[in-house]
Amino acid sequence: MKQKTIARSFSLSGIGLHSGKPTSIKVNTAPENHGIVFIQEGKKVPARIESVRETRRGTFLEGIAVTEHFLAAASGLGIDNLMVEVKGEELPALDGSALPYVEALAQAGRLEQNAEKHFISLAETIELHAGDASLSVSPGDGLEIKFMVEFPVIGVQRMTFSLSDAAFKREIAPARTLGFMEEYEKLKKQGLALGASLENALVIGQDGYLNAPRFPDEVVRHKILDLLGDLALLGRPLKASITAVKSGHQLNIALVRRLLENDRT
Fold first, then answer.
1. In terms of C-beta density within 10 A (0-12 exposed, 13-18 middle, 19 or more buried), how is residue 1 classed?
2. Domain 2-117: assigned CATH number
């Protein structure tokens, strides 16, 4: 299977989910074996695990917040090599999902390159635990994710997802980030969620959703989206079967580190 980039550049703009400030990106083609690299004020920030600085309410790479939705979009479409110019403190929130990124990447066209993809494959099962959250990763032929979440008000949601371009765009990309209304003021005092709204997040109140979900199980779908975005920090596509229970960015990033430590391919 060959590596891919995009055929032509494109730009997107909006506000940052946490900063609430205007932000924009210009996404450009990149040569084979380049990977995805963000460029902020002339500084290159590779979308790799060594760039991670924070996992609180998103995955922050150096000075760039909330990268996981864009990275999930690129990964979900099998795009390996991109240069992404960033103006602002984070990537645009857009509608809170990966769908606008998917649509823009698809419209830009995917360009097959000469180099082969270099997959990460497992020889044995890896398990990680943090409180009642866990991740178990076993050898697989493609990428399959079984995910379970449990939250107040919404209860338990489960989903099994097998990665393909079409399935990602249809089943995962439209799922929006979520937030609880009772946490909103606390997050604002921490300098977070300043750009969050009913237009770019699925908001949950004491009695249920404050805006209509796109799927009955939109929360677990977005958690799969986040995991795919964090797995993109491997720098190479993964072949594995993953079982996730209540996992978030911190445990996802710990898994990426473990996978790289055990990689022998």
1. exposed
2. 3.30.230.20
- Print the SS3 string covering 161-187: EECCHHHHHHHHCCCCCEEEHHHHHHH
pTM of the model: 0.95
With a cut of 80, say whether residue 191 has pLDDT above it: no
So which residues are the catalytic ones? 249
**Any idea which residue has 């986040």 for tokens?**
226
Q: Is the model's pLDDT at 5 over the cut of 70?
A: yes
Listed by start position, the domains of the chain span: 2-117
pLDDT in tens, 6-51: 999 999 999 998 888 999 999 999 999 999 999 999 999 999 999 9
Residue closest to 87 by CA, chosen among 153, 119, 128, 43:
43
H-helix or E-strand containing 83?
Answer: strand 82-87
User: How far, in Å, are 139, 231, 232, 259 from residue 239 at the CA level?
Assistant: 7, 11, 12, 11
- 187-192 long-range contacts (CB < 8 A, ≥24 apart) are 187/57, 191/18, 191/19, 192/18, 192/56, 192/57
Calpha distance 208→185 (Å, rounded): 18
List pLDDT tens digits, range 118-171.
999 898 999 999 999 999 999 999 999 999 999 989 999 999 999 999 999 999
